[in-house]
Amino acid sequence: MVGAELLVGYVFAWLVGKGKRAALRADQQVDQAVDATVDLASERLHALVAGKLSGDASLERLTQEADQGAAEPSARTRTRVVLALEDAVERDPEFAAALEDLARRLQSVRSGDGGVSVGGNVRVQAGGGSFAAGFVQGDVSFGNPSGARRGPGMTAPGTQGPTVGGAGWVAGVSADRGGISIGSAGPVQVTYQQRVAWGQPVRLDPRPGLVAGRERLLEDLHTRLSIGQGVGVVALSGLGGVGKTTTALEYAYRHLFDFQIVWIFHAEQATDLLAQFHELAELLDAAGGGNPVAAVHAALAVHPGRWLLVFDNVKDHSAARGWLPAKGFGHVLVTTQDGHWPREQALEVPTLDVRAAVGFLLDRTMSRDVASAEAIARELGLLPLAMAQAAAFVETTGRSLEQYLGLLRTSRSALLARGAPTAHATPVVTTWSLALAELEASSRGSLILLRIAAFLAPEDIPFRLLLPENLTVDEASLDAEVLVQVRTLCAEPLALDDAVAGLRRHSLIGPPGEVFSMHRLVQDVTREQIGSPESAAWLAVVRALVEAAVPSDPTARAAWPACRLLLPHAALVADLLGSPMSRLVESLGVSGDYATARTWWQTLAQAHEVSIGPEHPDTLAVRANLARWTGEAGDVAKSRDLFRELLSIRERVSGPEHPDTLTARSNLGYWTGEAGDPAKARDLFLELLPIRERVSGSDHPETLAVRFNLARWTGQAGDAEKSRDLFLELLPICERVSGAEHPETLTVSANLAFWIGRAGDAAEARDLFREQLPTRERVSGTEHPDTLVIVANVARWTGEAGDAAKARDLFLELLPIRARVFGPEHPETLASRADLGIWTGEAGDAAKARDLFRELVPIRERVSGREHPETLAARGNLDYWSRRMGHQ
Question: What is the pLDDT of residues 297-313, one digit of tens each?
């Protein structure tokens, strides 16, 4: 095989030539000639190597050195590329064979008598010390015409393409239809080889230098194009700057060997597109003075080989139909911002994942600052164009990634408006500003919706929740002009749909459903264009929209999905001290997301303390919620301590028998029991009950809650029969006061079943829990924490009633559900792990039970503390099942 170093030289020579050809593009005629006469042998070698080494930093460095005008690659870069090539050849026999074939083609140009020759689509023979290189397109004539003169840069008569000659007699070489000929002293013989044998005509824009994180997308694209018979069509759609053209070009270069015709059309303007069809028609010998589009379509329909057409930046799907061929053995690849392309043809181009984005920035800038690269990638929303622009800025200014990150956070708009990467015509800000200008002229409703979305979180914007037809907001403090604009989206049934469709047409939003997403940089540009002080007026209206959409009863299961959708947006715009925000956070806890509820109540508590003081009644109410959900999230001792602190403040501020003070006493009693002192909890509730009955009444929900806790902690302190009887008295009162299917009534019913079992009737307890399960599932949902408590009790009492193996299997099913709902180390999850260990042992596998508790004990110690009752129970079970092994 040809040496790897020589192949690297071929690739570098092609890269240098590409740069020089690009420099000639001031004149359209020269541009067409150069594009049509690229030396395909070297280009194919570059395509093959670049496809195999895609993302390799050594190849990127080779490209950079060529772009910078180096005469040859540096020794270090050459060595790195050689090693990469040799590794690839060893790993991939198909790549090695393709490389060998290309090497033979490149060497097929013979030289003699000391001459040097390089040939592409022509065979060039040089003798007598001549140097000849041919890149010839079309007819060629040769000879030594009369009047030939000595001198550099000679152009032979009739030549359309450029001719370059060195010193000495020029051997009359001429080329037409965009030919290039190079001559020097000595006789030169040039013979034309038919270009279609090597897959011509080919015209592509320069290959992207570094394509990161697109392997899966390129595979999907290839699969989609290859499905079915006839012409395969795929439209790469997405936001401007997301990398649609880069992906299309990379695909074309990687599959250059698969097609005989590869052609890119720049489809922004219909007149330019028509001229490009005319050019291709001529190269296909199909131009006859008629419609060039029809001529190309007809030629492709009967062409025996495969072909690939790329239509870049198609504006409108409906207008593009006439340009796309319907017959033939080929593929059509479209790039477009139009999000309305047919579903079977559309392929949405996503932003990069974090790992690929960070790797791109580090490779481009030769930096090792991973932390800054990741922060920049996230700030830029993982948008390829924005990151390419960032890398270009760092490269051209000498700034570090850390310095760029600082500029991005302080001068984002100015930075994003500066300079485009070399492979893209405009900066990212300009790309979107043009789309916004079109919306201003053609779809005012779309622009209004875009401005609303610009102030919200970028993901999952619930536009239909925010803009119902019966929109009702408090107008007192809102800008009337902005509010009038917003109401136009709610005035007619289809106004909002039209606005969404307009945004989608420019891919300014992702595919819409009940929600849509919007890139954070588009939001930045939109807010920047609104300007100040109008921006403040829009923000106030958006805040009103979000707060008006919050359900009035966050405890209702039907409200939970809406609350979860609204919370990220409320976090950005809502008043943290307002009732809507508290209702949203409350929904987190009652829907079972204890950890997130705790985090949010902590945020609200801090906001209240700063704004209205630590002892304001509203602040104390928020602190009570923080204490509660701290305990529900697993830190029961911390919850107890928080309620103890809160009680002392409540007694001083509100008085010892104020209802809020009594609620704090009740909560302190509950979390004292949860923290491991059930007897103390029982005594606290026994003291509290007569006070609560006197202050609130015997049927008040808070009084019933005290009776519930007294019954429970009586049982936990060791008197199961007394607990059973107390719950038996409480249940009919709750049914009368709240209803038979109220969640609190169902909880009382579940506790009655539990203490019936603890009092000695396991089968009755099992049957009662089985009866309760369908009702709880219907009321609360199949994975609500309270429903999972019922499931756990069905399992437990099934075992207690004598079927240990069935109990084990039920806990085995329950454990992954609890781990998913609560987290792997939540107390409820750990309780299920303990139950699984117990019933595994009771089913006859003591060794497995021992191993399960051996894993559980250190987790319990870390989560609950070494002296917590549940930790002591786990340690006791470990000892028990270890001893039981000795008796088997």
Answer: 999 998 888 999 999 98
604 has pLDDT over 70: yes
Query: Which element (helix H / strand E) includes 132?
Result: strand 131-135
Give me the percent of the chain exceeding a pLDDT of 90: 45
Cα–Cα distance for residue pair 53/211, rounded to 1 Å: 11
The rounded distance, in Å, linking the Cα atoms of 518 and 432 is: 12
Q: Which of 178, 141, 185 is nearest to 163 (CA)?
A: 178
| C-alpha span between 610 and 734 (Å, rounded) | 40
Cα separation, 436 vs 443, whole angstroms: 10
- The pLDDT assigned to 737 comes to 94
CA 376 to chain centre: 15
**Residues 6+ away with beta carbon under 8 Å from 794:** 766, 769, 770, 773, 810
Q: Assess whether pLDDT exceeds 90 at residue 289.
A: no
Cα–Cα–Cα angle for 236, 239, 244, nearest 5°?
Answer: 35
pLDDT at 171 over 60: no
Express each pLDDT in 672-709 by its tens digit: 999 989 999 999 999 999 999 999 999 999 999 999 99
Distant-in-sequence, close-in-space partners of 159: CB < 8 Å, separation ≥ 6: 174, 175, 176, 179, 181
- Is residue 267 within 8 Å of 273, Cβ to Cβ? yes
Give the position of tokens 């895609």: 54
508 touches 431 (CB < 8 A): no
Closest Cα partner for 669 from 619, 720, 623, 705?
Answer: 705
pLDDT of residue 159: 30
Residue 40's pLDDT is 55
The predicted structure's pLDDT at residue 878: 95
Q: Give me Rg for the CA atoms of the chain.
A: 37
Residues contacting residue 224 through CB under 8 Å, at least 6 positions apart: 232, 234, 347
Q: What is the DSSP letter of 143?
A: S
Measure the CA dihedral 45/48/49/50, to 10°.
Answer: 110
Enter the tokens of residue 612. Answer: 């209205």
What phi and psi, each to the nearest 5 degrees, are found at residue 330?
-160, 180
CB neighbour list of residue 266: distance below 8 Å, 6 or more residues apart? 272, 273, 276, 312, 313
181's enclosing H/E stretch is strand 180-183
Residue 150: DSSP 8-state:
B
**What's the rounded Cα separation, in Å, for the pair 413 and 400?**
19
Helix residue ranges, H only, 717-803: 720-738, 743-758, 762-780, 785-800
Q: How does 750-787 read in b/e, with b if 16+ C-beta sit within 10 Å?
A: bbbbbbbbbbebbeebbbbbeebbeebeebbeeebbbb
- Contact call for residues 449 and 509 (beta carbons, < 8 A): no
Amino acid 369 reads D
Structure tokens at 295: 């001529």
- CA dihedral over 127, 129, 130, 133, signed as positive or negative: positive
DSSP-H helix ranges across 633-700: 636-654, 659-674, 678-696
Q: Say yes or no to pLDDT of 21 above 70.
A: no
Residue 138 has pLDDT above 70, yes or no: no
34-70: pLDDT as tens digits: 333 335 556 667 777 877 787 777 787 788 888 777 7
Most confident of 81-90, 177-186, 469-478: 469-478
Contact 38, 54 (CB under 8 A): no
Q: Which residues pair with 134 in a beta bridge?
A: 119, 181
- pLDDT at position 64 is 81
Structure tokens at 677: 């002192």
Which residues sit opposite 683 in a β-bridge?
Answer: none
pLDDT tens per residue across span 125-135: 333 333 333 33
| Separation CA 683–CA 440 (nearest Å) | 70
